[in-house]
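Quick one:
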Amino acid sequence: MTRSKIFFSAVVLSLVAVMSPFTCMASGIADPTLRPGSNSLGLGAEFNFMQRTLDNEETVISASILGSLNYSILNRLGIFIKAGLFQTDTHDGYDSDWGLGVGMGFRGCIAEFQQGNIRIGLDGQAFRSQTDYSDQSVSRGTSTQEDITWTEYQASAIVSWQAYRPVILYTGIQFSGVDVEYEVSIYHWSSQTRTEEIYDVREDQNFSLLWGITYEIAEKVHLYGELKALSELSASLGFNFTF
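Output:
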């Protein structure tokens, strides 16, 4: 790897790291117009820190660390699965425990222009995770157990273009949805009774704009960062390689 590539990679990572405390991340799509070749496998990883406004007017923060396995069915069409750790806010705004999350989807390039320098692509994916939270409060005299089910889906259409040899820029639109179910059980010590409630809330804003950059570290190794304008501003960071 040349010094210029190493320097540029460090700059991209530093920019995203600086942005992270002030923005929030949504599930990354990477550039769906990349064409690794038919019958090829790829591995990747991504870090997501999400902030969504739900229809109960509450803002929910979530984080996930996911690995991905990609398979290219055709030169322009691929499928993938994601799995890893997921954490989100409880119904009362506390941090839940880390739980397992699994997702799957597809991506592809549907058209290209100017010898492939400009491409149009599609991405669709769904993600589901279950996590929980437990707490005992002496002052309130209660024990709380909460089970959280997070379901998310998104579909994106993007345009990518070759900025210069190792860098690809992309922009597009995304439709997304989040459904969160909270099952809250509270045991009251003094009366020895249990109160159970179920809350079902959804994402308030389903449309967003996105912008991304892909940097080719090596021939089949790519680093990407994304910025999204959802109900809140958001960003993503990940990498993938094909073999």
